[in-house]
Amino acid sequence: MRLLVVNPNISDDVTELIRAEAMRSVAPTTELLVRTAARGVEYIETRFEALLAAEAVAEVIAEHRDVDGVVVAAFGDPGMPALKELVSVPVIGITEAALCAAALQGQRFSIIAISDRITAWYRECVEHFGFGNRLASIRSIKEALRGIGSVQEDFRAPLVELARRAVAEDGADVVILAGAPLAGLARDVMAEIPVPVVDGIGAGIRFAEAVVGLASGPHRAGSFAVPPPKRRGGLSPALESALDAAQTAGSTR
């Protein structure tokens, strides 16, 4: 099995955090291809930034179609679920994977975020994926970040304290450490938090492997079928090729 893991942020140091946790999570027989978005922002906090990231992720997917599955490795799942229409392989976002993992382990969960600005968008994502009634709270860091690659080092203790308060005060049965900059932190702090702690990268990798392994087949019809042929303009050669291939394959099924 070969998985494409895309960092929708342009931060190479975050990509290395993603790569490290993905390597710890993946099965020995799975090959990983880890890539960083070519354009966008350092880290995504807002709906507009997610919009910018979505096209960049689509470009990466279009350039690497010879994979068995794709993991979109930023909390908030920029471009999802629309990216499922681009290719015939499973495309898994770490938010949806983390929410599913949390729901399987407890009745209510809390999300711990690295930015207060990001919480409104995260709440909308939870509602979109149908888990709104399972959300106990979203707690976040209030201080400015020194650097996106050093969040774990700079805010380890506050993040643990936020998680503990989510359990004690909000009734969380599970805690999700949200965002690729926190990749791998769950392994380090789970002994300090009295409920299961979910890492989005680990959840995304393991769920992608599971869905690929199910071999359920592609979307041939319905809302996730490939976009219908029509006149296009201004797209990159990679996206043009990906759409042409998808539409040709769809017409022959």
Automatic annotation (TrEMBL):
Q: Name one Pfam family in it.
A: Asp_Glu_race
InterPro entries cross-referenced by the UniProt entry: Asp/Glu/hydantoin_racemase, Hydantoin_racemase-like, Iso_Racemase_Enz_sf
Q: Where is this region: Disordered?
A: 222-253
Top-level taxon of origin = Bacteria
- What family is reported? Belongs to the HyuE racemase family.
| Protein name from the UniProt record | Aspartate/glutamate racemase family protein
Query: To which species is this protein native?
Result: Nocardia albiluteola
